[in-house]
Structures are given as structure tokens and as C-alpha cells.
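Annex B. Sample input.
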Amino acid sequence: MPHPLPPTKKLVILDRDGVINFEQADFISSPADWRPIPGSLEAIARLNQHGYLVAIATNQAGISRGLFDMHALNAIHQKLHLAAQAVGAHVDAIFFCPHAADEFCDCRKPRPGMLKAIGQRFGASLQGAPMVGDALRDMHAAFEVGCAPYLVKTGKGEKTLQKGGLPPGTQVFDDLAGVVDRLLQNTQSSNAAEPPARDLSAKK
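Annex B, continued. Sample output.
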């Protein structure tokens, strides 16, 4: 059974392609294809430093289509982990859906299964947890489970914004670093609003 997050820990869920790393016309099928968007890994490091757990939720239909295999996907994610570590960042879990759209699984975004699995893994409520993506399917998956949807303009984000159809309450930012700026501002404002702790140990 997963253990609930301690009170000091908060959960953020990130899409991978177009949020953390650059998209490319076809699938990212090898470590050589994976290139981080400037500032994205540093943004994750700032989340870590402020008590957030970071999980990735990514559709990877290229596996089902035979364009790459699990060995290649693991190598890509190893490169991601090492690049993150190089700037003091840490990704706590990577969840992926290997299925194609015509397999009608529950884990492929915009369906909610992958996000629900992340919540179960960490024993965390998804209500209000930030979900950052660049595609409409990310935003709809977030809305379905009660996450707060954040759209970035990197990757497919600009086209997604132009197409419209975003769920109510979707917030839009230039990139992941901009989202993290806002999240940390909100955290600092919330902490400042809390009353100071009382010392109950003093003798009467």
C-alpha cells in the first residue's frame, strides 16, 4: 500500500515531450533525440527544493507501433535522469502509456488512468495538484481527475492555445519555468498568510 505524502510534500505532474524536452516531428526514439528545453530541468530542481515531488506522465505510442522498444525508452529516461541530476534536480517517477490510440486503454491521455495511478503510487489526492502539459489531451486528463491544468506554450502549446477547447480554469504560461515561478509565488503567499506558531511549552 502506498503511504500518503507527508504534509511538507506536494505533488506536481508533468508531461514530458514539449514540456521538459523539445518535441520532434516523429517520435523521440533514442537518447540522441532527447534534448531538454532550456530552463526546464532547473525548474524541476526548484520544485524539489521547495518540497514538491515531481512525476512525469507521458504517452509513448511508439512502443505499440514498433518504432522503438522498452530498452530505447529506458535509455531515454536514463539520459533524462542524469541530465536532471547534473543541475540538482530529481524526478520521482516516470509513468508512461505504451498503447496506440486505437487500443482504447484507460492510461493514454486524455483518459485519466495514468494520473490516477500516480496518485495511488504516492498516496496523494489529485485534487488541485498541478498538471503541466502542452496538449489538449494533457489538460483534459488533468481536469478529469481534479488536477489544476497548466498549459505551456512550448512544444504543441501555441497550436493548442489557438485551437481552443481548454478546460475551465486552465492557466497558460510561456514554459515550465514560468509555471514554477507561479507555483512558488503561491506557496510563499500561502506561507506568509499562516499565523505564527505558538509556543505551548511555556510554564504558566
